[in-house]
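This week, work through this protein record:
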Amino acid sequence: MIAAVLSLSIMQTQIVRSNALEPLVTLLSQSQDTSFQLDVLRGISQALKGRSEADMPEGWGSLESKLGKSSNGEVRVLVRSLSLTFGSEAALDALRTVLKDQGAPASERVNALNALVQTNDPQLPGALLKLIADPAVRSETIRHLARFNQTETPPALLKVYRELTGTEKQKALSVLASRAPYAAHLISGVESGLIPKKDLSASLVRELRNLKKDDINTQLESLWGTFRESSADKKSEIEKFKRIYYAGGSSPGDAAKGRAVFARACQQCHTLFGVGGKVGPDITGSDRQNLDYLLQNIVDPNAVIPNDYRTSEIETADGRVITGVIQERTGNSLKIITATETVLVAHDQIESNLQSELSMMPEGLLAPFKDQEIRDLLYYLRQSAQAPLLGSKENVDLFFNGKDLIGWNGEESVWRVENGEIVGETKTGLKRNEFLKSDMVLKDFRLTFQVKLIPNSENSGIQFRSQPAEHGEVQGYQADAGQGWWGKLYEELGRALLWDQPGDRHIREEAWNTYEILAVDHYIQTAINGNKCVDLKDSDGALQGIVALQAHSGGPMEVRFRKFKLEIDPEPELKTSNH
């Protein structure tokens, strides 16, 4: 309340004179109450919001020294921010020191960097060039380099390019595409092989073309491929889909449902967040938050076609026509990736090979979908991190591929895939529970699987209709496994034991046991080796959520899961015959 009143009062003075703040500086100097200090500082900060500089009020220097040592972190941050606004050299020097200190936490160094950028620190351009070599702050450093026209920037970025992460590479390329002199270095980097051609996104190509340099455009034509502007009808279609998207309001879609649409329509060709096919470009690092960019590429996929993704139509001697992307050429054959498979064709079996000016991605991709499905897909594509996958009859095969942990998240030192089995193992025991979490969200389902726990005295289980919680935990139903716990139902981080009758008599110790979980509406049933265990109607329970495998805290153990079978919207009865 004090902060709001102070903010209004200060703003009403329009802060034209430094003495408007002097009474508040005096109050702060006299007060030892941290809550009061926070309120006053918040009020001043709110009133000065948006201003890069203001006259320093009388007495601020000594107050800065005093409150800069406060035990309260927010007080220190607010004082530093205001000191920068007041042009305090002491604050600038302190931030420069933090930024250079490789022993300081990365978050503090990044905050110092961003603060120095906002205050237009004259020493910053030179400092950025040195910080490119520092992985702890490199990502933010690269982002800010675009602000400054320095001839040293392109060589410095190219020198470390191969060391950069995917996100850092995207930022570096964007910097290099931001100025015509920089772009020449970018093109040279691609021609020399230092920058792989696959790193050039359609968005980046447009950035380069927007420089309106004929020599750059000519080189891009050779390096990248065909480019054309969308025709008027395509632009009209893009506008139509934008209207559909924005008709959904402030939260137009459901990311989990959108991922399900992506799995149906796009995933066989495109990789996003490490999941998907290789026919088209990996779109994880592309400019997906830009709705115009997304729709341009979906509605008019032939506007920009990288040479490496142009469609080839290959007719074989026996009359087969293969439409796909040529991935590899050898002396004996071609390797072609189609939307469904990888094909190897011997040269002497090829009757004709015609490279098209069209993309593998078809036009009219959004035509079959309802408006809400379009909103869900676009909403998912604009996310900065992977979303859960809503389980459906069409995508149950994505639950576990039997080869690796794509679609699952957990501690790599505990979880692995071995011989088609998910293995959770600890040689020394665990101090806290470790969970391997599936990306897939399930509503009504039947899940059968086999589980082996060694030794049986340890504990495991499988979460379902659950939600990720803090510190890697998972909240929700758990079908338990372990001595004295087999067949029980527990609600992790919730109501605890929901079904207390053990099913130990049904299990084979330290051997494979078949577990069945059936969840339909509010009814939960489980069975072990064909014997019913849980039979519960739980009106207060969650109706959807993820699956997660548990390795319980305790001593050394190994738990294995295999032969998963997932049914969506099943018949509401257990399959109680022996498996």
Remarks:
- The chain has four domains: 2-225, 232-301+364-387, 307-359, 396-568.
- Confidence is low (pLDDT under 50) at residues 10-16.
